[in-house]
Amino acid sequence: MSGFDLLFKDNKRRKDIFSPLIILIALFSSLISVEISQFFLYNFIWRKLIFLFCAAGTA
Predict the structure, then answer these.
(1) φ, ψ for residue 27 (rounded to 5)?
(2) What is the CA radius of gyration of the chain?
(3) What distance in Å separates the CA atoms of residue 21 and residue 7, rounded to the nearest whole number?
(4) Model confidence over 4-42: pLDDT tens digits?
(5) What does each C-alpha distance from 41 to 6, 16, 28, 55 come to in angstroms?
(6) What is the DSSP secondary-structure string of the chain?
(7) Domain total for the chain?
(8) What is the rounded CA–CA span in Å between residue 39 and residue 55?
(9) Which spans are transmembrane here (predicted)?
(10) What is the rounded CA–CA span in Å between residue 55 and residue 12?
(11) Which domain holds residue 22?
């Protein structure tokens, strides 16, 4: 979060970096959403594998 705070403080001083900041935030948010979807997919696969291992263990 310190990096974002630094960017916003710099933005308050110099208005000319405002549009690059918006572009950066858009890029970061798209990257974060991709990471989150990959994480949920990974979690889903792991839960399926754990379920299969548990079923094999109890059978």
Answers:
(1) -65, -45
(2) 21
(3) 8
(4) 566 666 556 656 656 788 888 888 888 888 888 888 888
(5) 33, 39, 20, 21
(6) -HHHHHHHHHHHH-GGGHHHHHHHHHHHHHHHHHHHHHHHHHHHHHHHHHHHHHHHHH-
(7) 1
(8) 24
(9) 21-42
(10) 58
(11) 2-58
Residue 1 has pLDDT above 50, yes or no: no
Instruction: Look at the chain and count its residues.
Output: 59
pLDDT, residue 4, reads 58
What would the two tokens of residue 44 be?
Answer: 């889903």
Give, in order, the Cα–Cα distances in Å from 48 to each of 31, 32, 43. 26, 24, 9
Answer whether 11's CB lies under 8 Å from 4's CB: no
